[in-house]
Write a structure and sequence with these properties.
Number of domains: 2
Strand content: 25-35%
Number of strands: 19
Strand order of the largest sheet: 1-6-9-8-7-10
Shape: globular
CATH architecture of the largest domain: Beta Barrel
Largest sheet: 6 strands, antiparallel, barrel
């Protein structure tokens, strides 16, 4: 087992409310090819799309988000939610508009599956819970993962990675490298929106999906929401930047887009300016399978 400081992590309660689906504009915005696209910006409570589904070709959606997007009306509290919640953390419904009638749903565990730059934490719940959720329902996260370290690999920075997901990944080591399962290796040159951001804890970086030639060449349309992907020659230790030989692993948290520079979004979980992270390609490297999400 790779040595970590898991026993030193602090677990805190953070929370937010199930969001409202929204649009940025009242009309269509031009896509990369000049054709207007739907203004739908984010999903709120998504009854249709879940982790494990395709990241591509959802009708009328810009960067579709799976599951339930939660946010906190207090700006400082939302920063805390966005910073402290990590992928794999447990989330539970604590207050619902259906109080009494569906009280049995309270305490049903969900799982944090990602964070998006617009200020929302994404949570997966079983379908029986999602179908009964209402906008404004309160959800609490047992946040843990901030400060996680791989003790024998000081150049590898850990971000957004909860203890449960770390255990599910079961990383190994060989030849001085950390071996991590991923579904695909993405060339760093394909990154778009989010590059240059100085904070990898509260947002995502997009894999550009607006070049049909690149989508075909790298089979990007095979990406699923919740896939773990490696990004070659990109270091995110102090914000995403090109670095030959660097290695980054992240989770696909939202879907593709037709807006220039946009596409499937990735939350970083491991990154290094050196080739210390070795991706092991397997189709099963998806949160739905790694964590048994139904």
């Amino acid at each position: 087992m790779i040595r970590t400081n898991l026993e030193k992590l602090v677990e805190l309660a953070v929370g937010g409310s199930a969001g409202q689906a929204a649009a940025r504009d009242s009309g269509g915005r031009p896509g990369f090819d000049g054709v207007a696209v739907s203004p739908l910006s984010f999903s709120g409570i998504n009854f249709t799309v879940k982790v494990g589904d395709s990241a591509f070709d959802w009708a009328g959606a810009h960067e579709v988000e799976p599951g339930v997007g939660i946010t906190n009306d207090c700006e400082e509290s939302n920063v805390g939610l966005m910073t402290l919640a990590c992928i794999g953390n447990e989330a539970v419904l604590v207050q619902s508009a259906l109080e009494g009638k569906d009280a049995r749903l309270h305490g049903t565990p969900g799982v944090v599956t990602g964070k998006v730059s617009a200020g929302r934490v994404l949570v997966h719940f079983p379908k029986r819970v999602v179908d009964r959720l209402a906008v404004g329902d309160r959800i609490q996260v047992r946040a843990s993962g901030m400060g996680l370290q791989l003790l024998d690999y000081p150049d590898v920075r850990v971000m957004n990675l909860g203890p449960r997901l770390l255990k599910s990944l079961n990383p190994s080591e060989k030849g001085g490298k950390v071996r991590i399962p991923v579904a695909k290796v993405i060339p760093g040159k394909l990154l778009g929106n989010g590059v240059g951001c100085t904070n990898g804890w509260t947002g995502d970086i997009d894999i550009q999906s607006t070049s049909p030639e690149s989508v075909k060449e790298y089979s990007l349309d095979q990406l699923r929401l919740g896939d773990l992907v490696a990004i070659a020659d990109v270091d995110c230790s102090q914000g995403p930047r090109w670095q030959t030989g660097a290695s980054t692993v992240g989770v696909v948290v939202h879907g593709a887009s037709r807006h220039s520079g946009h596409g499937p979004g990735v939350n970083v979980i491991l990154t290094s300016p050196k080739p210390t992270i070795e991706p092991i390609i397997t189709r099963k490297a998806n949160l739905a399978e790694l964590m048994g999400l139904q």
